[in-house]
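Notes from hallway chat w/ T.B., transcribed later so I don't forget. T.B. wanted the structure written out for a chain they're using in a teaching module, and asked if we could keep both sequence and structure tokens in one place. Agreed to drop them here.
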Amino acid sequence: MSSEDAAKPRRIPRRAWLGAMGAAALGVPSARADLLGYGDVPLPVPATLPPRERWLWLQNNVGEEVAVAYRAGQDYDLRAMVRIQRLLRDLRADVAGPVPALLLDMLSLIQERIGYTRPLHVISGYRTPQTNASLPFAAPNSLHMRGMAADIVVPGMAQADVCAHAMLLSHHLGFMGIGWYGSFTHVDIGPKASWSRML
């Protein structure tokens, strides 16, 4: 292998990525189940996601930032996914959790609607059960514990507008849970639902 080939991002098929992420990045025996963490929540398989390169520009609460192409067609870039997984970790426990590709695709579509001029600031991504239990307003069965949700802010944009973009996307895709909490917007890849709560 030439040094030029070694420098190229490693592209692997989706199924191979699921196994590799579980075994290599997470070190778990049952890669698919533990990585995806879906449990008994059925995930949609939208035919509306175009098979093309997808980008994400994310930032978390400790200032870490990732701007990366994580998908080309149906192939996912393993190194990019590991970087995103690390950024979306439970910051209190410093533990990385599952990273369902559908959540990243949804965040990418939200960012596409808003424009790639600024990052999506992720207030909360994956949560351990312990962290979730310590939060006064967190649902006991929160999808954050399965890596299926993110609480986001877009710097310089009113949260009502962020929520409106998410609602339009939800209408188009036919799924997504969206919660407007005043200072941030919750999005998840569960069944279609919406709610608001001012914290």
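Follow-up for T.B.: The mean pLDDT is 80. Might be a good example for the class.
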